[in-house]
């Protein structure tokens, strides 16, 4: 596709932003969910410190906010992301959402939301049963049969999967939560919100946590 070179330019503006970054985040999620009546799957990119590679990132699913208002995701203790966060809880998170309604639905914009200087905190085991019960069967089975990151033979894994599924369906019981199943929330020092539309220079609003525990919000240059 050939894209015509546009000879216009404009500045994006984040016109209003609430005092609390989590409220800002909720507003963006709400706008992003419009046009997705069955619910919007939100991914986040998670970067961790890794002993072998220095830094390692991957996509994980954003599962919502904890009661104390921190974003969390679910993982297994055998993954590298778990091992990385256990060894060093420093993390970077990046959400990327396109075609988000803006300006009362008149425009479509892109949002990038970053959690900067985030500290990962594992959620207590007592919260895991409720999360496990909500998992789709496919995720539950993955948790039981997949040796994350290990080389595998497709046919061997498929046979294991099919047998596991058959036994499970025949049992008529719920699948047990594996010990490896866990979740982390992220406690950031900064929330960074970038908004941009086509033909615009992005605007950013950054919330910086102060020593007194309050958030200071400001526009920052892109
Ligand atoms: C759309 C998408 C969603 C994913 N969600 C998760 C997730 O919520 N938790 C998780 O541990 N891995 C998730 N993964 C898999 C990770 O990206 C990654 O491959 C896996 O966790 C192993 O990565 P690691 O060795 O860097 O830890 C997801 C992958 C994709 C493409």
TrEMBL record:
Cofactors demanded by this protein: FMN
Keyword Flavoprotein annotated: yes
Any one of the GO BP annotations: pyridoxine biosynthetic process
InterPro entries: Pyridox_Oxase, Split_barrel_FMN-bd
Residues in the signal sequence: none
UniProt KW keywords: Flavoprotein, FMN, Oxidoreductase
Entry EC number(s): 1.4.3.5
Domain of life: Eukaryota
PANTHER family per the UniProt record, alphabetical: PYRIDOXAL 5'-PHOSPHATE SYNTHASE (PTHR10851:SF4), PYRIDOXINE-5-PHOSPHATE OXIDASE (PTHR10851)
Full protein name: pyridoxal 5'-phosphate synthase
Species for this entry: Drosophila ananassae (Fruit fly)
Gene: Dana\GF22444
